[in-house]
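#help-structures
NK: newbie question, is this the right format to request a structure? protein is Lipoprotein
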Amino acid sequence: MQSRFFSQTMKCLMIMVFLAAAVGCEKSTEDKPGATQKDASNQLEDTKQNAEASQPQARAQTQAPSPSQLPSEPQSKAQPEPQQTGAAQDIRNLSSLIPAGKALSLLSNGQKAIARGDLNKDGMDDLAIIVEDPKDSMTERDLILFFGNAAGAYEQSIYAKEAILCKDCGGVFGEPLEELSIKNNTLLFSFHGGSSDRWYSKYRFQYRDRDWVLIGYTGGSYHTMDVYRGEEEDINLLTGDFILKKSDKNDPGGKLIQTEKGKRPKRKLVKLGEFKGKIYDETVIERVEADKGNRDITPSPDRQFVFFTKEKNETNFIWNIDEAQPKEIIGIASRVGYAIWSPNSKWLMVDSGTSPIRTGQLVDPASGKIILEVSYLGAGQISFSPDNSRLLYARGSEDLPSIKDRHVDGGRISVIVLDLGTGKEKIVKQGTETFDYDFPEWKDDHQISYTKTTNSVAQGKLLHTDIQETMKLEE
């Protein structure tokens, strides 16, 4: 009995000794500083080998966090200069993407100016960020685009300096930057600003032929106190297709309604590296408008050209937005009253003179040269047909007698159509001794309207009555 008890006691003692030794070994392992680091190093090496064997799997394992997960404070010293090419960087170390002296910008809603998505159609997430000088709110900000790779790292594609409007460029709104996003392989960013008169703009860039180009633009304006003063234009710069909307004065709600669709001539696409926060025609037109010595500033319908007059010496210019300098229009002798563009922007009629009898110079905007001159009645009372092929105006003839000759000058007034292809005039409504035909307008390509005036004299006074008439033009 004692032998059995002794045997069981020895077994228990041996078990306790074994457990104590095991605990001591585990504690000894924890006390060794190199043990865990070595294990971690082995795990990283295994991960690296797996990544090299299967890149898609590695990308899934190392995919960058969402913008909201990115660190809000730099976790290491920023690079002295933005990389243009070279080794990819892990997005989780955001500070390595931000140049020295710069800080990550914020949108107007307080969100970080970061966007992720596929920009180059390789199926991998790319990255866009906006950075700024934290001590300067009046200088335009920089846009940096990165291409992602299969390892979940990023290589810089472009550093677009001053491509984003400044923090204080939104007027009373202050921060104008509303959106930075990547959708359908397209980079989008938008601005909004003003006061009671407000404006907004949205730009669409794509990576094409190894460069970044502006492919689309939406811009508009509205007034907070006047629902009838809103308008918006959206244009596809690759095709020239556009949609123009504006507030309808007949709509009590003043809603934006579609008013026009069309196609404008294709023009040189703006590169992101040259973009300075605004579409190119805005830049040229605003430069012209900013000069207080300019007047009669009139952009063409497609905004490819802008006409203006220098107040100081009454010289007239036309500026093609794709050219560095404007062209002077030689041969306009009198003060300009109006600049009237054809609907397709191929012709410009410059109305000049200081009396009711006007002179109009037809200008080729591409060359800046005067093609022909016409005379007509009424400042600005000349118009292009909707199909851009003819001019319509009225003119008096003092060679033929009129019942009103003793009272006013001008003679008989007739309606005239000028064919721009031949340069020949045709009287379509002939004035008589009693009747004048004036103030013509196009109804469409085939019909016009005008005012018919019946003149009479009673007790030495000239009397007249007016009615509106419409006529169809002969083909």
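mod (FA): yep, format's fine, and the tokens are attached above. Residues 389-475 form one domain.
NK: thank you!
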